[in-house]
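Translate sequence into C-alpha cells.
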Amino acid sequence: MSGGRRSGQVADAAGVNVQTLRYYERRGLLAEPERSNGGHRLHGDGAVTALRVIKAAQRLGFKLEEVADLLEAGRHDHGRHVAGLQDRAQTKLAEVDAKIADLTTIRTDLVVAVEAGCDDLNVCAASSRCPIPFADLAEN
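Result follows.
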C-alpha cells in the first residue's frame, strides 16, 4: 500500500489523537494498518471515515462496545436482518428519554430546594417542611 496515510495524518484528518487511533485499532474498531518498509503504519482511505463514524456514534451516546457491534453488523449484513442503526437508535432514544425524565425530576427537586433556602441537609431532613424528597429515598 504505497498510497496509505501515516497514523498522525489520519488522526489529524479525523480530529483525534494518535493514541485514540491506536486504541481503536487494538479494540478492533479499525482495521490493522499495513506497514511501510520503514515500519510506519499506513492506513487505507477508509480510516478517516471510520474514525469519524466512531466519534459520531459516541456523540450520539453509543458506548464503544455498541459502536463495535454496529460496525460489525454493517460488515456482515448480507441480506439478512441484523440489528443495525435503526433498531439500536430506537433503543438508545428510549434510554435518553428515561435519563431526561430522571434529570427533569432532579432539576425540579433542586429548584424547590434552592427556592426554600435549604442550606443544611441534616436540618432539612429532620424538618417536615423540607421540600427535598427524603421520604422517597427511604421507600426504595
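Note: Helices lie at 7-14, 18-27, 46-59, 64-76, 85-116, 121-126, 134-139.
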